[in-house]
Amino acid sequence: MTRRTPSADRFGGLLRSCRATAPSVEFRRPVTAAGRSMETPVLGSLAVIVRGVDRRGAHHLADGLVARRSPSEGYGVFTTRPVSRGSLLCVWGGRIIDTARMLTLPEDRRRYAVQIDDDRYLVTPISGLGAADLVNHACDPTALLAGANTLVARRDLAEGDEVTYDYATSDANPYLGFACRCGAATCRGRVTGEDWCDPRLQTVYGDAFSPYLLARIRASREAITGLG
Ligand SMILES: [Zn+2]
Hints:
Blueprint: H1 12-21, H2 46-51, E1 60-61, E2 65-69, E3 75-79, E4 88-91, E5 95-97, H3 99-102, H4 107-110, E6 113-117, E7 120-123, E8 136-137, E9 143-145, E10 150-153, E11 162-165, E12 177-179, E13 190-192, H5 199-205, H6 211-227
Parallel strand pairs: 8-11
Antiparallel strand pairs: 1-4, 2-3, 3-11, 4-10, 5-7, 6-7, 9-10, 12-13
The structure holds zinc ion (ZN).
Zinc ion (ZN) is lined by residues 138-139, 180, 182, 184, 187-188.
């Protein structure tokens, strides 16, 4: 595994173009937590979630998926039977809040949030926590975003496969930043809120970005074309 610190010119001119289309937001302190993943249990309801007892939650999780210890990152979501490519895996629900409200949340609450627009986050209330909150990031994931809050299988999954997706396809906030140990040959080593600007990732994921990021990507490409 290699680790690297993103540099200002990591993606060259395209990154600058992406930044030009991004909102300007000041964040008071950096957060290094890995988004929805969880390295250590921080809430008493976790044991219930992992046992799969509590399926009420704020989310929809497809049958045949459970949460349990992950070899790569604390806890994760796994299949208990084969799943076909393109199948619906989960739909996240919760409360929609803006960036200002997001910044008032403690770090362990931000783990249960996904960015769904330039200034909107979908965050899980503690009472609604469920196994779907434990989907880990991976740089060569088994799932893809379909819209802003839905995951589908990227390929046929075997029993026991972990459900993962690339956080670069959903989150673009400046406080996203954590070391990745997913083990993929293409592991970026560090995941940041600027990764969506990477042309390689844009090629790999195509339309499987959150709609607000797709809009930014298209705008940045049109800006570059216009400059030509
Ligand atoms: Zn990785």
